[in-house]
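Please describe our next protein:
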Amino acid sequence: MEAIIRTFNTLWRSKNGFKVRNAGDHVMLFVFDNKEEVDKIFAALPWSFDRHIMLIQRYEKKLHVRELFFSHVAIWVQIHDIPATFMTCEVAKELCENVGMVDRTIDFSDIVGGSFMRVRVVIDVALPLCRGRLITFDKGEEGWVSFKYERLPNICYWCGCLNHSDKDCDRWIESDGSLKLEDREYGLWI
């Protein structure tokens, strides 16, 4: 817990600091007295500690901590291999709806990043990351657009989920260690 506090104290650079309470079962409550600092932390999601995803959500005091369900994270998705004529906000939003729930609170005027587009999407960490999508261009031609994820922490390269590592994957466990590296569906390219 102290290592987490030291790490995020340095990263978040809170003017007034923050208090931390251990709520048990790997849940920590970070208490701030400045709403703008909290907004800044949420705007910079995802956060990770020791390369593991940190699922962060606002806490409503009327709920009991045990009622909180940590399953989603906002993450930036890059859309690659898309022809320039299709690089529009509407196309980006539609493509990323396959990845998760598109964060519509962001400014979509800055989604073009040169040869790719980027959209912030809220994803379920228990579902495999979407690697890409087959799309239909003009005149019925089909093409593949690939997705890459920014600031991605450890993921399971066997199944593409964020909520466990390779050694904890059901595929790996059920194989009794017989899977080979080439059997991985994901890699550093994601």
Q: What stands out?
A: The CA atoms of residues 55 and 141 lie 40 Å apart.
